[in-house]
């Protein structure tokens, strides 16, 4: 009887069920992270290794992207400002845009693609080849060793990468401004620091911590729950990127509302 | 072969496990005695691997009890279950070696996580000794990707032995290997029993492996044990057509 009812249930109802089950599952995964993160073993060595993988190994791509963003954004903004005779405001405009939004967002999106996918694929492949089960039967907590370490590493490294990208993008912007407006390095950075407030930098760092946590936990969640062999690994990597990016944009929107509420309170 | 078994190290009663509508185990009873090699035979998908995964708590049973070394696994808290897991070695079908670690690190990993205060010299001695005993001392600095299927199986077995378990669970130890390597693995399973005095459950559908390594056979068909006994008892005099066909297929009759 119940089997017949289940079979005849509309597809949309099954999909809604699946969505909420998935949501509860993800919530429990995040809850487990916060339960386990405080207790030993702390796996410092593995956290350091992951920081190196996530932070240092991302530097070439992040540097190039940050530098190009700085140059392109400056170049694209110049005509509009020049129209109002305000080209001298370029350093202020660029610094605000980069520190408040572009730096964290660009870094997080690149990290979601590079780091998130690699975490999803690595843990996914460990799952389908029973390496996670092998840890469990050896009385090793795989959640702690794989999930907690990687999530801590992304949470710590993304803000550092964001500060680095801010700097590299501003240098890119400076080169462009220097060539066109003949502004010196010191004048450029005096304008930058005059325009940027403590709240801008502080909110950017807090936001980056949230982005980093999102990239780590989503990559781990998708990898940890992958199935169906190598196809599942590919799907886990892909889903890590898509879900991280989606959440990063939502978080950016929320952060903007919160910071504006504080700024104009 | 050992013949007198009195002390039970594993006692399974009325074990049931389903995955949605698929009833994999339908009330299984099984005993494993100390120093015994018990072979669980059955075709693919018959629930052999599920049985040993239930034993180590990788899956949870729907009904029934599993007592290992006198402890009911379902009633154990995670900490107690982990203590029990240290006494059980699980050799996975695909070896499950950690890809990102060398052979040395693969063997050290469970050792250093579970036994604190070991010196570097003690760790090295143990790792090198085990690699010697599985006949692969030269692979110590190699990555799993550089090893052959048979070598991976041997390292996988060595990794489980590093914690000196009392019970060994082998999941399809000869699957996907050439006949010569199968012989090596079968000999290794017997060697492990002799050297480490382990009791073992060998999951396989390879009758040669079963005959060489097993003291007793248990044939799992459609979620239940159809026959339990020595190889001769189960197969030579088999009248059940399902068991007979299994035997005939393996020995190409």
TrEMBL record, chain A:
Concerning InterPro entries, the annotation shows: Permease_MalE
Listed A to Z, the keywords are: Membrane, Transmembrane, Transmembrane helix
Write out the transmembrane intervals: 54-74, 86-112, 152-175, 195-221, 241-262
Keyword Phosphoprotein in record: no
Q: Which residues form a coiled coil?
A: none
Supply the name of the protein: ABC transporter permease protein
**Taxonomic source organism:** Belliella aquatica
Classification from the root reads:
Bacteria, Pseudomonadati, Bacteroidota, Cytophagia, Cytophagales
TrEMBL record, chain B:
The chain positions of domain ABC transporter read 10-247
Q: Which residues form a coiled coil?
A: none
UniProt keyword terms in alphabetical order: ATP-binding, Nucleotide-binding, Transport
Q: Which SUPFAM superfamilies match?
A: P-loop containing nucleoside triphosphate hydrolases
Question: Which one Pfam family would you cite for this protein?
Answer: ABC_tran
Q: What is this protein called?
A: ABC transporter ATP-binding protein
Any GO molecular function: ATP binding
């Amino acid at each position: 009887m119940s089997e017949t009812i289940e079979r005849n249930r509309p597809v949309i109802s099954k999909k809604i069920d699946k969505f909420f089950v998935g949501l509860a599952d993800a919530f429990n995964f995040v809850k487990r992270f916060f339960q386990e993160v405080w207790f030993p073993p702390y796996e410092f060595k593995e956290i350091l290794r992951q920081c190196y993988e996530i932070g240092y190994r991302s530097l070439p791509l992040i540097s190039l992207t940050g530098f190009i963003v700085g140059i392109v954004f400056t170049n694209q903004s110049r005509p509009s400002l020049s129209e109002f005779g305000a080209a001298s405001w370029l350093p202020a405009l660029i610094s605000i845009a980069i520190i408040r939004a572009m730096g964290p967002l660009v870094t997080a999106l690149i990290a979601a693609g590079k780091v998130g996918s690699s975490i999803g694929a690595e843990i996914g492949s460990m799952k389908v080849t029973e390496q996670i089960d092998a840890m469990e039967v050896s009385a090793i907590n795989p959640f702690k060793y794989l999930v907690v370490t990687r999530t801590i590493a992304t949470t710590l490294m993304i803000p550092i990468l964001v500060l680095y990208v801010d700097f590299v993008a501003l240098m890119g912007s400076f080169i462009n401004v220097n060539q066109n407006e003949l502004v010196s390095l010191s004048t450029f950075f005096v304008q930058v620091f005059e325009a940027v407030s403590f709240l801008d930098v502080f909110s950017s760092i807090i936001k980056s911590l949230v982005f980093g946590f999102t990239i780590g936990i989503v990559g781990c969640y998708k990898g940890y729950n992958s199935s169906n062999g190598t196809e599942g690994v590919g799907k886990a990597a892909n889903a890590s990127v898509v879900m991280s990016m989606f959440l990063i944009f939502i978080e950016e929107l929320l952060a903007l509302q919160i910071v504006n509420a504080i700024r104009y309170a | 072969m050992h013949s007198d078994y009195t002390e039970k190290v594993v006692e399974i009663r009325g074990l049931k496990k389903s995955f949605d509508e698929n009833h994999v185990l339908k009330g299984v009873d099984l005993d494993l005695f100390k120093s015994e090699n018990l072979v669980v035979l059955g075709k693919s998908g018959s629930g052999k691997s599920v049985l040993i995964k239930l034993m180590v708590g990788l899956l949870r049973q729907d009904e029934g009890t599993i007592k290992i070394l006198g402890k009911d696994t379902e009633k154990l808290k995670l900490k107690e279950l982990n203590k029990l897991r240290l006494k059980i070695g699980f050799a996975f079908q695909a070896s499950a070696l950690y890809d990102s670690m060398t052979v040395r690190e693969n063997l050290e990993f469970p050792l250093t996580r579970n036994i604190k205060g070991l010196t570097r010299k003690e760790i090295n001695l143990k790792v090198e000794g085990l690699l010697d005993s599985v006949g692969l001392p030269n692979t110590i600095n190699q990555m799993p990707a550089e090893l052959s299927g048979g070598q991976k199986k041997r390292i996988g077995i060595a990794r489980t032995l590093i914690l000196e378990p009392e019970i060994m669970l082998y999941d399809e130890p000869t699957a996907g290997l050439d006949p010569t390597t199968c012989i090596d693995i079968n000999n290794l399973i017997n060697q492990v029993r002799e050297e480490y005095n382990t009791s073992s459950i060998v999951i396989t559908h390879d009758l040669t492996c079963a005959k060489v390594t097993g003291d007793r056979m248990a044939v799992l068909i459609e979620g239940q044990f159809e026959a339990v006994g020595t190889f001769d008892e189960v197969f030579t005099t088999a009248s059940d057509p399902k068991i007979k066909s299994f035997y005939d297929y393996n020995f190409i009759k």
